[in-house]
Amino acid sequence: WWGIIVELQLIQYFVTGICAWGNKEFLTREFGKLPLKAKSLWNLSLSSRFYLLLFPSLLVLFFFLPAATFVHVSLWIISRFFAQSFESIITTHKKFGYALAIEISSALILSAGVILLFNTITLNQILLLITLSNLARPLAYLILFRSWVYPSQWFKPAVKILKQSIPFMLLAFTGLIQTKIDLALVDMLMPKTELARYQIFTNFLILIRTGSAFLLYPFLSNIYRLPVEKIKRVSNVLFWAGMIISDCGLMALSVLMHYV
Fold it and tell me: b vs e for 120-138, b when ≥16 Cβ sit within 10 Å of the residue's Cβ?
């Protein structure tokens, strides 16, 4: 049944990739330019993306997925939507330690459930565990960043924000297509067991590729304000850091391939 879960996660990735609408990069830049309006911009972006993108997406899925599966996938999408929305705040305020703790806790919920039910686990149980682990993330972020949440502004979607963030959306969605299109093709052309193994390897490769990006995120809000010459210097440092991380990661992957 792991192949079925990969298919459902593909739906989640593509829907939330569109619904994110480049908000992290766009808002991180805007927070640096307009710090006094940061909370208002964040709430307007959240409401605009929810009403204009998420709701139609869920409506379409309702007609294509079985009822029980639709409930789980909808909760995955909504959870990921809200968790993604907090990424710009995390980047701006450099709350990476808190974010890491939340992500690890979410993973532990899923891992603990799988270990406890390992011999008798069913598809419905694993779907429920994934749903619970997904819900934990936005709830934790909501508690941590509750001072940013202005529900009164959620009923005022601003199309202007969506238009301004289109270049960031196209860049982010292109990256999503680049990392997931091969998984979609494998899903169509290969057995479910091979799909599951393929996802393990590709996820590891994606983790290797984004390793250098983790070095960049703590300074992203500052980089938007740097002159071009300094940005070029940062790019050179990240290039060599990426080469080292990639080489180490590929060696680790070659070892992993003997055991999966």
Answer: eeeeeebbebbbebbbbbb
Task: Report the alpha-carbon distance of residue 94 to residue 210 in Å, rounded.
Answer: 18
pLDDT value at residue 101: 92
Opening angle at CA 48, ends 43 and 51, nearest 5: 120
Number of neighbours of residue 47 by Cβ within 10 angstroms = 19
**CA–CA distance, 64 with 62 (Å, rounded to integer):** 6
Q: Tokens 């940005």 sit at which residue?
A: 231
Is residue 110 exposed (0-12), middle (13-18) or buried (19+ Cβ within 10 Å)?
middle
Sign of torsion, CA 144 145 151 154?
negative
Least confident piece of the model among 90-99, 138-147, 210-219:
210-219
List, in sequence order, the alpha helices (H) in 21-95.
Answer: 23-33, 38-49, 55-62, 67-85, 87-93
Segment 57-63 mean pLDDT = 86
Using a cut of 0.85, tell me whether the model's pTM lies above it: no
Alpha helices in 145-165 (DSSP H): 159-164
Indicate if the pLDDT at residue 159 is higher than 60.
yes
CA distances for 111 relative to 23, 132, 192, 202, angstroms: 30, 12, 21, 20
Average pLDDT, the chain: 84
